[in-house]
């Protein structure tokens, strides 16, 4: 099974002002879609596997995509005040997934034109607990090439509800650089738009 998808986002934890995404996915029986350091940079939300049940659907899934953003904002910090490209790729097996995500700067605002300044590696396990309640847990390793920042590792765990607005809460614990726990509470909803042509889908998030 394969397809192409693109979306224009109104709100995204990694951007401000404008976001345009495009990607392609393929799997044995189900597609995988991403659901997000102490120094500058990662996503606040883990990349969930295609099958949160961990027992149904397909055995494996692959997905890849990218986003062109006007700015890079993370946890309220403006990290890049200029355009960036953020590619992502995920391989998933039932509820387990491995994601690689990067941030490439597209202008010289930080003297890094064309260079990747962050690469995140996320290992995640997500599954349904009971009814609409689901849980997720994992680890994120942050690498900052072409910057003076040191690598960092975070563990996280969260709970959410599969219902309108998809509310969730996630806690993050850094084991390298920072003390304490970082908590996020999120709501999100997507609206599908009429397909411009066969095999292409659009949504507003």
Overall, the morphology is: globular
Largest sheet: 12 strands, mixed
**Computed CA radius of gyration, to the nearest angstrom:** 17 Å
Question: Strand-and-helix sequence, N→C?
Answer: EEEEEEEEEEEEEE
Task: Provide the low-confidence segments as ranges.
Answer: 1-51
How many H/I helices?
0
Structural class: mainly beta
**Amount of helix:** under 10%
Work out the strand percent: over 45%
Arithmetic mean pLDDT: 77
Strand tally is 14
Give the terminus-to-terminus CA distance. Answer: 24 Å
Chain oligomer state: single chain
Spatial order of the strands forming the largest sheet: 12-11-10-9-8-7-6-3-2-1-14-13
Please give a structural write-up.
- By secondary structure, the chain is an all-beta fold.
- 0% of the residues lie in helices and 55% in strands.
- The chain is built from no helices and 14 strands.
- It has strands spanning 2-8, 19-27, 61-69, 72-74, 77-80, 84-93, 96-105, 116-130, 133-143, 152-161, 168-174, 181-186, 191-197, 200-204.
- The strands form two sheets. It has a twelve-stranded mixed β-sheet with strand order 12-11-10-9-8-7-6-3-2-1-14-13, with no helix packed on it. Strands 4-5 form a two-stranded antiparallel ribbon.
- It is globular.
Relevant terms:
two-stranded antiparallel sheet; twelve-stranded mixed sheet; 205 residues; disordered N terminus; globular; mainly beta
Structure at a glance:
The chain is mainly β. The chain is built from no helices and 14 strands. 0% of the residues lie in helices and 55% in strands.
């Amino acid at each position: 099974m394969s397809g192409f998808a693109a979306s224009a986002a109104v709100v995204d934890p990694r951007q401000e002002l404008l976001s345009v995404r495009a990607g392609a996915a393929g799997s044995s029986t189900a597609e995988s879609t991403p659901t997000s350091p102490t120094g500058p940079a990662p996503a606040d939300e883990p990349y969930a596997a295609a099958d949160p049940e961990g027992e149904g659907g397909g055995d494996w899934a692959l997905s890849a995509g990218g986003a062109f953003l006007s700015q890079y904002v993370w946890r309220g910090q403006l990290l890049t005040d200029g355009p960036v490209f953020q590619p992502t790729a995920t391989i998933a097996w039932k509820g387990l997934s491995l994601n690689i995500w990067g941030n490439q700067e597209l202008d010289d605002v930080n003297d890094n034109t064309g260079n990747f300044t962050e690469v995140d590696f996320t290992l995640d396990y997500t599954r349904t607990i009971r009814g609409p309640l689901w849980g997720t847990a994992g680890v994120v390793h942050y690498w900052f090439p072409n910057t003076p920042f040191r690598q960092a590792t975070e563990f996280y765990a969260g709970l959410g509800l599969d219902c309108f607005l998809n509310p969730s809460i996630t806690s993050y614990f850094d084991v390298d650089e920072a003390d304490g726990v970082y908590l996020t509470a999120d709501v999100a909803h997507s609206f599908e738009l009429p397909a411009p042509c066969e095999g292409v889908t659009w949504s507003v998030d």
